[in-house]
Structures are given as C-alpha cells and as structure tokens.
Amino acid sequence: MSKIYFTLTGTKHYFGNEFLKKGTKIRLEKEPDNEYDKEAIKVTYEGLGKIGYVANSSYTVIGDSMSAGRIYDKIGKKAKAKVVLVTDHGTICSISKKSLLDNQKKIKKSEAEVEE
Hints:
Number of strands: 6
CATH architecture: 2-Layer Sandwich
Helix content: 10-25%
Order of helices and strands: EEEEHEEH
C-alpha cells in the first residue's frame, strides 16, 4: 500500500501553521454535516482542537496530493496522520498506514456481513 498525501489548508483561520513541524501528529475526522462540503474532513491537533481541513479544491490542493473527496472513502470516521512538509502555500501530510488498513478491514467485514 502506497502512502497517501493530502494538503492541510485553512490553518490561517485558526492557529496558523507556525507550530506545525515535520512529524507533527494530527487527526482527521469526517464532518458529514458540514454545510459547505459534504466530503469535509477536519484536521485536529491535540490540545488545540480544529486547526484546518483537508483541501478539497483544485485551488487549495498542492501538487499530486489528494483532495478530501479522493481520500474520503479510504478512511473511517477518524484517521491519524502526520505532517510531512510545511510551506507558505499549505502543509503536506500523510495518512497513517494503520488508519488505512483498519478502514479496509472494516469494509471487508461489513461486506462479509451483507453476504451472509
């Protein structure tokens, strides 16, 4: 399974990104009731709460990193991630392999229950 990278955006509306460093652990949480984006995934940092969102627009996604819409079905309700690179244009992060594997197991389990 290859790494999945995404862009953390919107940090200027919360705490900025000065505190984010390579290796900083963050959490992703789906926000299905978000009035602006049905595929919204908020990003939180322990002790601060919400620090931004996974980018979901061609204007905010950096390079080949994935948008919220592209990773939405690859994660469960929550996932762990970490910062890989902080730039002036956004922050690149990667989803933990364990979060991806755990979600795959849940999907397979629910598919097996449907077949029974």
